[in-house]
Structure formats: C-alpha cells, structure tokens
Design brief:
The complex is a heterodimer of chains A (615) and B (343). By secondary structure, chain A is α/β, with parallel strands linked by helices. Chain A has 20 helices and 22 strands. In chain A, helix 1 packs parallel to helix 6 and helix 11 packs parallel to helix 12 (315-331). The longest helix of chain A has 20 residues, at 196-215. Chain B has a domain at 15-217 and 307-318: Thiamin diphosphate (ThDP)-binding fold, Pyr/PP domains (Rossmann fold), CATH 3.40.50.970. Helix content of chain B is 29%, strand content 18%. Chain B is built from eleven helices and twelve strands. Chain B has helices at residues 32-46, 81-91, 103-109, 111-120, 165-171, 185-197, 219-222, 227-230, 283-290, 311-325, 331-335, and strands at 53-57, 72-75, 96-102, 124-130, 176-181, 202-207, 231-233, 241-242, 248-253, 256-261, 298-305, 341-342. In chain B, the strands form two sheets. Chain B has an eight-stranded mixed beta sheet, sandwiched between helices. A three-stranded antiparallel beta sheet of chain B has the order 8-9-10. In chain B, strand 8 and strand 9 (248-253) form a beta hairpin. In chain B, helix 1 crosses helix 6. Classes of the chains: A alpha/beta (615), B alpha/beta (343). The interface between A and B is large, with 69 and 58 residues. Strand 17 (463-465) of chain A pairs parallel with strand 2 of chain B, so a sheet runs across the interface.
C-alpha cells in the first residue's frame, strides 16, 4: 500500500514545465492546464519557446517552457516565479532555475543528467550532486529510464517510447496535484485514434508516472488547489490569438458583413491567420498574401467591396503596412489591423513580448493620419476588443488598430463563453440602392462617418482613392482650404469616438497617494501588484487603459484625484509621452522595462513603494 | 465565356452609360485616350450591369483611369492595384474587376504582386499601359525601357536589361496574355472582349505612346508605313501570316521560330504555323511573346488564353463545401466547440 502523504493547501501555485524543444512541453503544459481548469481552478498560462523550431539538443538555446498559474482565487497573470519546476534536461534546469522561488519543488529527469549533457548546458559539475540545489525540494526521478521500462510490454519502437516521457512526468504531476487522469486519457485516445499502439504507450506512460509518484518516497506531500469562485456559466481555456480570431468572426456575424482576412505569416501573429483559415464554414475568406503590403491592400480592396476586412501582423509587418494604412484613412474605409507586438526594432526578438509599437500605431504614417487605437489586456479580453475594434471600424468608417502582444497571443486564461446575441449591436452605415443623396464623402452629422457604398449596389457608382478629395462630392482636389477641412474632419471623426467608448474605470479608490497607469498586456501584473498594496492599506489605485486613441473622456478627472501618477510600460515610455502630449497639466513618473519579459509583481510593488516614499 | 455569375444588364448599355463627368487630364496625343475609348466600347458589349464593373488602379498616368470611367473605382497606391483588386474580386466575385496599371506600377514597385496575382489566376483583367518610361514623375527609365536609352536618370543610356512583359507573365504561369498597339482601337476592343471572356488573370499589354517623355518609342512598329511589315496579328486557328503583301509567315524549325517569305526556298502556306491560343503548353506562346525586330515581327492580339481553375472560384467552392460538411454553423457553435465546462 502506498504511504499516506500530507496535503498542502495552497491558494495559488505557479508551475513551469521546461525541456528541450522536442520534449513536448507545450502539450504537457496545455494538458495540465486543461485538467486544472476542469477541476475548477482559475488559471493563466504562458508558453515561452525559442524562435528556432528545433535548436540543437540539450542546449540552453533550445529550451522550451510552459508556465501556468492556477488558483482557487481569481488569477490575473501567468505568475512571476514558480513553485514547481519540472525540468526535463540539464539545459532547461540551467535556463530556468532563476525563475524558481526559494524552496520550490523541482522535478528533474535524472536520466538526462549525463556528463555530456551537463557540460553542454554549461555546468561544471552535476547540479544534482554538487549541493547547489540544497535549498530546493528536489525530486530526482529517472524519468526516461522508467518510461521505457513501463512500456516494455507495449510493441513500440524505442524512440517513440522515449517520446512519451512527457506523459510520464505529467502523470507524476497529476499525483502531486491529486488530479483526475480522465480528460488526458481521453485526449490521447482522440489525438492518436488511428494509431492504437501510440494511444497505449502514452496512456501507459501517464498512468506509470502517476503510480510512480504515489509510491516514491521523495514526494512527501501533495498539493491541493481548490476550485476558484467563478461566476456561473460555461467556460473554456483560450489563448489571445484564438480569442482575437473568434472575436472577429463574432463581429462579422453580428454586422452581417462577411469576414475577409488578408495576411502574411509572422510570429507571433500567425496563429490568427491559421485559426481563421479553419472557419470557412462561417464564410470567412482568408487570403494568405505574398507579403505584408499585399495583406493589407487586399483587405482594403475587400473593405471597398463590402467585407469586414482585417489584416493581422506584428511590428515589422506593421511598418510595411504604413503606406496602405494611410490609404485606408483617406478613403475612410473600415479596416481592422491587429498588431501582435513583439520585441523590436527590426526582427528583434520574435518570440518575446514588448509594448514598443504604441507610437508606431498612433503616428507611424505619412501626413495627418489619425485612426482608432485599442489595446487588449489579457488573452480572453482579445475576444471582446477584437469585436469592439470591428464594431467601431465599421460604424465610424475608419481603420482601427488593435494592439495585443506575443505574451497575450500565446498565453491563455479561462474564458466565460458569451452568447453572440448578447454582444453589442453593430450597424454599418451602408448606403441604400439609388439613394438620391448619396455622395462618396457625405457624412453622418453626429459621427462624421461617410456611407459605405458597396460595388454592385444600384445607383451608387463612385470613385475613391488615395488622392485628397473634396468633402461631400469626393472629386480629386488640391484646394488648400478643402485639404485642411478634410484633415480636420478625419481627425474630428476619430476623436468623436470618445463619445461611444466606455469611460475609463479605476481599480481602487478614486483618490490617493499613487495612481498606477498602464495599458494593454500588463494589466494582470499591475492589478496583482496594486491589489497587494491595497490590501496592505496603501492608498494606491490602477487606471489600466484599453482605449488609447481616442482616450476616454474622463481620463483627466481620474488623474486629478492622485498625488502622484506613475505610468508603467514594457517600452521606453511611449504611452507616457503620449499622455504628456495630450494632458500636459499633470506630472507623470514612469517605470519602464524592455527585456522582452513581463513585469513581475514583486518588482512592481518595490517600485511603487519607492515612488510613494519619495518626496 | 463571359462570367455567368455576374449579372447581365437588363437593357443594352451604350458608351454614354460609362462616360464620367470628370475632365480627362492626359496630355493631348497620349495613348491613354485610345485605351479609354476601347474600354468604353467594350463594357456595353460585355453586357454586365453597369454596377458590376470595378476598376482599380495604382499610381502613374495610367492609374488616373478609374476617374474617367463611370463605374465603381478605386485609385490605390503605387504598385498595389493588383492586391487591392484581388481583395475586391475575392470579397465580391460578382464584380467584373479591371486593373489599370503601367510598366513601372506593375513591374517595378508592384512586381511582386504582379507575378503573384498571375500565379493565383484570380479572375481580373489587367490593362497594362506600357510606355517604357515613367511619365507622371517626368521621364525616368522604367523596367521596360530598352537598354542604352537616354532618360532623365540615365544620361549615358540605361544599363538595365528590360523585362519582356510576355515573358514575365508566362514565367509566372500566366493563363492569358495579349498585346496591342494603342493606335488600333478596333483590335484593342476585340482583345479586351477576349480578356473579359477569359476565366482567370488576363494581362493585356498596350504599347502606349508617351508623347512627352518617350515619343515614337514604338513607331518602327506602329507607324502607318511599317506596321504591316512589323506586326503579326494573331488570330486563333489561322496561319501566322503578315506583311503588306501577306507573303510573310512564321514557321517552327527544330526548337525555334523563324520568319520566312512564302514562296521562297520551297516554303508554302502549309508550312506556316497555325495559332492555337488555347494550348495549355506555353512553349509556342512564349516564343511568340518574345519575338521582336529586326528579325521578327512583334506578335499582337491574343497570344495565350489557356484554361485553368481560378482562385476566386476555388474560394467559393471551399466555402460551399465547408458550409455543407462542418458542424460549426454559427459563432455560438464555435465558441462552444471542443473542451468546455459548466460552472
């Protein structure tokens, strides 16, 4: 009989799976997260992998990781440091030990700690032997060897048998967290349904891992994370990129305008293109263009032709699209541009996240070319903001730039599934056939949006383009006063969107010593840090922005309630520059980090404390 | 065949139905005027509803074209008429989509898009105004300017090998290529009609005189005195005969074409190649497209018109199939698909 183990009750736990690129860590992490979600935990995940598909084996460059933060309370972030680190080889341990909390539980595959691999990872001596891990709770398990042994009765080749070691370690983790194996067993059955021997191997390895963990002395206690109090409803786990794709599909359905995506593959945005390609049954037309420019230009053509047009990209791609963005601005056509930001400049660090495209989004075009800029702030929120981007774009006849980032795009969290009918209405201003008053640039007096006159509609033949046009008639014009009028109208049209977006919310009291300001993907970390300090009695609040251009109308009212304002961004200070320009009456402090990494709650609380103490 | 998907006009349209109220601002004597006349001739003849034509352009003299025809029109940015038009056609396959572009717009700045729209065989018609010069920017050499030509940016003559448009189009697996001189509106109208009938990307290269910056560039080919000697006007199913006396012809010997005189060296009319514009094999079409003086006439008319599935048809087919076979019929289905759970 297995020895009775102690149970550790925890409010939240951060787990990180790390291994070689080919070790299957992304799948392992995903399955672990799905099982946690089914057990009622709230969670947020973040995959962390190299740009190379298969970097050399056993090197630090080839380490792939998947972090999940789960809790019996609301989880805002994928976590700072981990409580449990699963390292499948020496290189992954080397690269990730710095992210483990003091005293963290570390599970390693002892079988991989051979002399060559240890040296390749950059260790002089084996960290399992030299005492360097004494301050952690180290669980050494010969995972590869045990996996192969457990499969001795399954007729499968050695290489394949070895590959199931990720299931073995997942089984160990399921024991550690006292999870049910059913959903993973079921997943394996479905995934490999055409290969019964692969099903058997993976399922056997999973169970063997569980049983091993139960028997082995090294695991003194199991961990219990109870279900989080969640609102009633149907839930799923979703990544930011999938949520973006689905939000766009929902907007197309609600608006009655078919979805057209013109896009070119680029990390970390490609997943949106791949996801939308799957949904032809919903009428989505997806055009994989020859380059970024053709991506946006085809979308502009589709928008002219009456589709809800979208182009998706990341920073360098947005640079290529700049000229065409100006064309969408001057032709006043709806268009959603999704920029899944990554660390730049140039190719930069494609798989690492940053918020450094904000100024490009706001100003990166020739001429006076204002457009709406919206930023999503968490994986699930991408659904809502993609939907709203499409709504404002069509209703106000203007391009909308939606900023997400790689962290959000690849990361996941639980998503309460909405009903499409409950989402806000979308009413595109379509011109009616034979409308005697139709002119290409005649406008709605309230929104200043022109009419969308779709080719094919009787009585609406007209020409538009990149040359400046006369207001109302839309004929080519270089008249100086007309140009100034049109520049002002285009700006005014975008600024009036402030009458439609929600007011800025504040997390915490409406006045206090310090207002933390953030935007986009840092919301979870900022909220966690501010929340911690609020519970400690500090007079600190958070204003986290999703609507960037235009800003919510009550922004200055919020700012005026605080003694100090600190703007926190993963860039050199782009939002703070924009705020200084827009509301120069306030004094802004700033905290910036440009490492391709998210903020950590601990560093934020330290920084906020310092700012609050400074005279 | 004309596109059955596109709605026909209930009444016979005329040239006037397509006349725009905008002043045509091309230079007097510009080849653009003839192209405009041919388009205004051919649109009523094609017979689609007037709301079912869209003209898209890039930048350059050619690209003012949409303003001069009363259809739906979109004046884009430099080089990008082809992707914009691709979006129009894919989004709205009920439109007959025409692109007005020039040699610089389509083969320099837009070269990438040009080869890809052709490769995909999207059902659009490209009017390629080739005047071998940059006109709107006032006289710099283009990708089709002959080597050695003195222009504003090549005071000692260009040192660039020009594109032969036909070679580029067929190299990109083009299914339709035609060439016409700007001073033969009748031929141009016929060719544009053939282009409209073709399913897929049709490229019509119009040798266009730029009276200001490259006057008479094509006159050895197009002048009244020389045109019959120097132009081979192709007709499907007819022998490739040309010349004032109709005594010159093209034969295939070994792997090359030769221009020969009928009656000399035992050549009879039977030896002359018969034009097959529909042949899928582009071999002869490529050779015809490359012919130039002094040893050859320049081939005019429809050189190639091969049948191949179009991108836009296949998009519709995939969507129809997906709608029939997928269990996901609406976004609610999608949101609730896969692993979900109730709390």
């Amino acid at each position: 009989m297995a020895k009775q183990k102690n149970i550790m009750e925890l409010e939240d736990v951060v787990v990180k799976f790390v291994g070689d690129s080919g070790d299957g860590m992304q799948l392992t992490g995903t399955l672990f997260s799905d099982t946690a979600a089914l057990a009622g935990n709230d969670l947020a995940t973040f995959p962390d992998f190299p740009a190379e598909i298969r970097a050399p084996q056993n090197t630090v460059a080839g380490v792939s990781g998947y972090q999940v933060h789960l809790g019996q309370r609301k989880i805002f972030t994928s976590g700072d440091m981990c409580d449990v680190l699963v390292a499948m080889n020496p290189a992954s341990l080397k690269a990730n030990l710095k992210w483990a909390k003091p005293g963290a539980t570390i599970i390693v595959d002892e079988s991989t700690f051979e002399k060559k691999a240890i040296e390749k990872a950059g260790y002089k001596t084996s960290p399992l032997e030299d005492g360097s891990l004494n301050s952690y709770h180290l669980i050494k398990a010969p995972i590869t060897v045990l996996t192969k042994e457990s499969l001795s009765n399954v007729s499968i080749d050695k290489k394949l048998a070895e590959k199931t070691k990720n299931m073995f370690v997942l089984g160990m983790m399921y024991f550690l967290f006292q999870r049910n194996l059913d959903s993973t067993l079921d997943f394996i059955l479905k995934k490999f349904s055409s290969k019964p021997e692969v099903v058997q191997a993976n399922q056997t390895a999973l169970k063997a891992g569980y049983n091993y963990a139960e028997t082995v002395e090294a695991i003194a206690s199991t961990i219990r994370v109870g279900p989080a109090p969640m609102g009633k409803g149907r839930y799923r786990n979703i990544t930011g990129n999938i949520a973006t794709a689905w939000g766009l599909l929902a907007a197309a359905e609600r608006s009655g305008r078919p979805l057209f995506l013109g896009s070119y593959p680029i990390t970390p945005a490609t997943e949106i293109l791949m996801e939308l390609s799957k949904h032809k049954s919903l009428g989505a037309k997806v055009f994989q263009a020859e380059d970024e420019i053709a991506g946006i230009c085809s979308a502009i053509g589709a928008s002219f032709a009456g589709s809800m047009a979208v182009t998706t990209t990341s920073g360098p791609g947005l640079s290529l699209k700049s000229e065409a963005l100006g064309l969408a601005v001057i032709t006043e056509l709806p268009l959603v541009i999704v920029n899944v930001q990554r660390a730049g400049p140039s190719t930069g660090m494609p798989t690492k996240s940053e918020q450094s495209d904000l100024l490009q989004a706001l100003f990166g075009r020739n001429g006076e070319a204002p457009l709406i800029v919206i930023a999503a702030s968490s994986p699930a929120s991408c659904f809502y903001y993609a939907y709203m981007a499409a709504k404002y774009s069509m209703e106000h006849m203007t391009p909308v730039l939606l900023l997400t980032d790689g962290h959000m795009g690849f990361g996941s969290e639980l998503f309460k599934i909405p009903k499409v009918a409950d989402l806000p209405d979308i009413n595109p201003p379509l011109a009616k056939p034979n409308d005697p008053d139709f002119k290409p640039y005649r406008r709605d007096p309230v929104t200043l949006a022109r009419k969308w006159a779709v080719p094919g509609t009787e009585g609406l033949r007209h020409r538009i383009g990149g040359l400046e046009k006369t207001n109302i008639d839309g004929n080519v014009s270089t008249d100086p006063l007309n140009h100034e009028l049109m520049v002002n109208i285009r700006e005014d049209k975008v600024m009036r969107v402030a009458n439609y977006i929600p007011e800025q919310e504040i997390y915490g009291e409406e006045s206090g010593d310090l207002l933390v300001v953030g935007w986009g993907g840092t919301e979870g970390m900022l909220k966690s840090a501010v929340g911690q300090m609020q519970r400690a009695g500090q007079k600190i609040s958070l204003a986290h922005f999703n609507y960037i251009m235009p800003l919510p109308k009550n922004t200055p009212d919020i700012f005026s309630g605080f003694k100090k304002i600190v703007v926190c961004e993963l860039n050199k200070g782009q939002f703070v520059s924009y705020l200084r320009m827009t509301y120069p009456e306030f004094r802004y402090l700033q905290y910036n980090k440009v490492q391709g990494l998210p903020f950590h709650v601990k560093e934020l609380t330290e920084v906020f404390t310092k700012f609050m103490e400074e005279k | 065949m004309l596109d059955k998907r596109i709605e026909k006009s209930p009444v016979q349209l005329t040239k006037e139905d397509f006349a725009s109220d905008q002043m045509v601002k091309w230079c007097p004597g510009c080849g653009g005027h003839a192209i405009l006349a041919a388009v205004e001739n051919v649109f009523p003849k094609i017979g689609y509803r007037k709301e079912n034509f869209t003209i898209v352009s890039g930048i350059g003299c050619s690209s003012r074209f949409p303003y001069y025809v009363n259809t739906f029109g979109f004046h884009g940015i430099h080089g990008r008429a082809t992707p914009i038009a691709s979006g129009v056609k894919i989004a709205n396959p009920d439109q007959s989509v025409w692109i007005a572009t020039g040699d610089g717009d389509s083969m320099a700045i837009g070269g990438n898009h040009f080869i890809h729209i052709i490769r995909r065989n999207i059902d659009v018609n490209i009017l390629l105004f080739n005047n071998q010069i940059y006109g709107l920017t006032k006289g710099q050499y283009s990708p089709t300017t002959p080597i050695g030509k003195v222009t504003k940016t090549s005071p000692q003559g260009t040192i660039e090998h020009p594109f032969i448009t036909a070679g580029l189009v067929m190299g990109a697996q083009g299914t339709f290529f035609a060439r016409v001189p700007d001073n033969n509106v009748k031929l141009m109208t016929e060719v544009l009609y053939e282009a409209a009938k073709h399913d897929g990307t049709s490229v019509v290269e119009i040798l266009e005189n730029c009276i200001i910056f490259n006057d008479k560039a094509f006159s050895p080919l197009t002048s009244r005195e020389k045109r019959e000697e120097n132009q081979l006007i192709l007709k499907h199913g007819e022998p490739m005969i040309y010349g004032k006396e109709r005594d010159m012809g093209i034969i295939l010997k070994g792997t090359s074409l030769y221009a020969v005189r009928i009656g000399v060296g035992g050549i009879t009319e039977k030896d002359i190649l018969v034009h097959d514009q529909f042949s899928y094999d582009p071999g002869i079409h490529r050779m015809l497209g490359r012919m130039m003086g002094p040893d050859y006439p320049v081939a005019m008319g429809v050189i190639r018109s091969a049948k191949a599935p179009t991108y836009d048809d296949m998009v519709e087919e995939q969507i129809d199939n997906a709608k029939k076979s997928s269990s996901i019929k609406c976004v609610d289905d999608l949101l609730n698909s896969g692993d979900t759970w109730e709390i």
